[in-house]
Design a protein that fits this description.
The complex is a heterodimer.
Chain A: E1 5-13, E2 16-17, H1 32-42, E3 47-51, H2 58-72, E4 77-80, H3 86-94, E5 99-102, H4 104-108, H5 111-120, E6 125-134, E7 137-142, E8 147-152, H6 153-163, E9 167-172, H7 184-193, E10 198-201, H8 207-217, E11 221-224, H9 226-229, H10 235-244
Parallel strand pairs in A: 1-3, 1-11, 3-4, 4-5, 5-6, 6-9, 9-10, 10-11
Antiparallel strand pairs in A: 1-2, 6-7, 7-8
Chain B: E1 2-5, H1 13-22, E2 26-29, E3 40-43, H2 49-59, H3 62-66, E4 72-75, H4 77-80, E5 83-86, E6 91-92, E7 97-103, E8 114-122, E9 136-142, E10 144-146, E11 153-159, E12 161-169, E13 172-175, H5 183-195
Parallel strand pairs in B: 1-2, 1-3, 3-4, 4-13, 5-7
Antiparallel strand pairs in B: 5-6, 7-10, 8-9, 8-11, 11-12, 12-13
The chains are: A alpha/beta, B alpha/beta.
Chain lengths: ~250, ~200
């Protein structure tokens, strides 16, 4: 059976991980490649790197990071952050990235999804969507959830799929950082609507939250950052609990 | 030493990185004259099968590839090229295996592309799967699959239907998954191929 995927997410700036990391065995907790290698040894199924470098050297530092990761890691990984044009994506593909994640650039220019899918194939194009509830509607937000757009979340996801998104990374900004569980209601709705893989993000605080999100929404993958970085959840433990709950995992 | 067939279909950085990690020597095959210096070959490939076949034809390597007597391994679209035909682009392919590459049908609850780690079950004895337990997970990402065939399927995987995760016929091999992204068992498979 196809396994549910567990995906640690690493925030990177100027080639270094930015959020604190609390692994005991690391020589250099700020080195994204060493951290990624450690996760791959623990049994992570995939990795996401979110590059928040804001300098003019951004593309160059991203390409160097992707090359270093591809040289040393034997699992797939996605890179996101500031990818605005075909040339960015092309450079990252040639550096060994398996997928790229696009967020605000796709909201501002939805035709970019069509162009990327046509140039590189749908399997290369992950559309990241940050959502927040306003009134009684889920609204797409930009800038880490600070800037609301006019797009309703489900409508935007359907549009992204029709334009050539190969996967959806859906982050609930209402749940992100709360450690109170994933937004299983919205994830269920999205997962039942689209015919491409959905990655749940935002709210992971315990092993049970991962059990809940897979059992309730049947999403394909779940992503988290701090619970993994601070060692609050160890991936082998998480996978054994998922397995006990009859959720298919790679062990 | 492995010769990697270069024909412009997708990047090979991850593949060469995996071979580097494993200490497996490789070089590039750009012309027919390059073929003889290697004792085995990998045909990589990402993207559209019809377009990939068109690019391969433009290199002029097709007759020499079809005549290879040394071990050759197609990966992903590189495997699909070994079959007779693909529904992707309605394309005639190398026909080293008289079977077809088909599009996954839309069926409730199954998403396409088939993305992620799925279990692979060897159906025949072959050194390619030595030291790899039956049911090990490998990383797949594809929208087209090679039909299951008792004669040619070396290992199978089930998604929507049972299909060929790998194929084998005399010196030709193909894998639908990405061994270079499939953790330790993927690396084991590449090592096994380097010794076949």
């Amino acid at each position: 059976m196809l396994a549910k995927r567990i995906i640690p997410c690493l925030d990177v700036k100027d080639g270094r991980t930015v959020k604190g990391v609390n692994f005991v065995d690391l020589r250099d907790a700020g080195d994204p490649v060493e951290l990624a290698w450690n996760y791959s040894q623990q049994g992570a199924d995939e990795l996401v790197f979110l590059d928040i470098t804001a300098t003019v050297e951004r593309r160059k530092t991203m390409v160097e990071l992707v090359k270093s990761v591809a040289r040393q890691i034997n699992i797939p990984f996605t890179i996101g952050g500031g990818i605005n044009e075909i040339a960015d994506a092309d450079a990252l593909l040639n550096a060994g990235a398996d997928k790229i994640s696009i967020n605000s650039a796709a909201v501002r220019n939805p035709a970019l999804i069509d162009e990327l899918a046509k140039a590189f194939g749908v399997q290369f194009v992950v559309i990241a969507v940050d959502t927040r509830v306003m009134g009684d509607k889920n609204i797409v937000h930009l800038n880490g959830g600070r800037l609301p757009t006019e797009k309703q979340t489900l409508d935007w996801i359907i549009e992204a799929e029709s334009r050539g998104a190969g996967e959806i990374l859906l982050t609930s900004m209402d749940h992100d950082g709360t450690k109170a569980g994933f937004d299983n209601g919205l994830l269920t709705l999205v997962n039942n609507t689209v015919n491409i893989p959905v990655i749940a993000s935002g709210g992971a605080g315990s092993v049970q939250h991962f059990v809940d999100v897979f059992q309730q929404s049947n999403v394909d993958a779940a992503l988290a950052a701090s619970v993994f970085h601070y060692g609050e959840i160890l991936i082998p433990d998480l996978k054994s609990v998922l397995k006990e709950n009859n959720i298919e995992v790679r062990v | 030493m492995i010769g990697i067939i270069r024909y412009g279909a997708g990047n090979i950085f991850s593949l060469t990185a995996a071979l580097d990690r494993l200490g497996i020597d490789y070089g590039m095959v750009n012309t027919e004259a390059d073929l003889e210096q290697y004792d085995r070959y990998i045909i990589p490939g990402v993207g559209h099968a019809g377009a990939a076949m068109h690019k391969l034809e433009q290199t002029g390597l097709v007759p020499a590839i079809k005549a290879l007597k040394k071990p050759a391994l197609g990966i992903c679209v590189g495997m699909q090229l070994l079959t007779a035909y693909s529904e992707e682009g309605d394309a005639r392919l190398l026909n080293l295996f008289p079977i077809k590459t088909l599009k996954f049908p839309h069926e409730g609850g199954f998403k396409v592309p088939h993305t992620g780690w799925n279990q692979v079950y060897p159906e025949k004895e072959n050194p390619l799967f030595e030291n790899i337990p039956s049911g090990s997970h490998f990383y797949f990402v594809h929208s087209y699959f090679i039909e299951y065939d008792q004669s040619f399927t070396l290992s199978s995987t089930s998604y929507i239907n049972k299909f060929s995760a790998s194929i084998w016929h005399s010196n030709f091999y193909g894998v639908q998954f990405h061994p270079e992204k499939s953790g330790i068992y993927g690396e084991t498979l590449l090592k096994n191929f380097s010794k076949i």
